[in-house]
Specification:
Layout lengths: L3 H7 L19 H18 L7 H15 L2 H14 L8 H14 L3 H10 L7 H13 L3 H11 L10 H16 L3 H22 L3
């Protein structure tokens, strides 16, 4: 494709289905992963500027490879370049880019930068994954009550099932916080809500 619009036309419309997909594509030995990412990085760097309107995505993927190969600082530099190139928020990978940059800021000890970034775009991406990522960073910043509010919000969003195993972590964190505050009734309430959700998912998909 010669430009980003051609890529957009290649992407099929998506819709939710009651299917659990287990992806094992990166369940490979560490040495093999390093070789894979080195190959990816080499190809990505060569492709900068080749396709009109795609450099933001290319820098995003460079950041993903750098996170494995070189660590947080190099990944941050690539993610920030990607942010400089995005023309708007419409592209499907933009929220992933923002969350990746925020998580890497947090892992590098730049939690205030992570929170500022997530809060800047919070109104644009009201999804379970985005809110859960924000809650996790709040938790890391020891803003327990604010984190709790966002974890609870995750459980009310229509796409909460897209979190997969992270939804279990979300409910677990809610229960943990309520128990720490001595709110046994609320902790049990969310425990029962989680069991009901899990039972319903198992009924629909047959997943354990």
């Amino acid at each position: 494709p010669r430009n980003a619009d051609d890529y957009d036309r290649m992407i099929l419309e998506s819709f939710h289905m009651p299917v659990i997909v287990r992806h094992y594509g990166y369940d490979i030995p560490h040495e093999e992963m390093i070789r894979k990412q080195e190959r990816n990085l080499n190809l990505l760097v060569k492709s900068i500027g080749e396709t009109e309107g795609m450099d933001d995505y290319i820098y995003f993927q460079i950041g993903q490879s750098q996170l494995t190969l070189s660590g947080a600082q190099e990944a941050i530099e690539a993610y920030e370049k990607a942010m400089e190139h995005i023309p708007g928020l419409e592209k499907y990978y933009v929220p992933e880019l923002i969350m990746s940059l925020a998580n890497t800021y947090a892992d590098a000890g730049r939690v205030p930068d992570a929170l500022a970034l997530m809060e800047k775009y919070a109104k644009d991406f009201n999804t379970a994954k985005y809110v859960h990522t924000y809650a996790n960073i709040l938790w890391k910043d020891e803003q327990v009550l604010k984190a709790l509010g966002n974890y609870i919000k995750v459980t009310t969003l229509p796409d909460m099932g897209t979190l997969g195993g992270e939804l279990t972590d979300c409910y677990g964190r809610i229960i943990q916080i309520y128990e720490a505050f001595g709110e046994k009734e609320m902790a049990e309430n969310f425990h029962q809500r989680f069991l009901a959700y899990h039972a319903d998912k198992e009924r629909v998909t047959g997943a354990e």
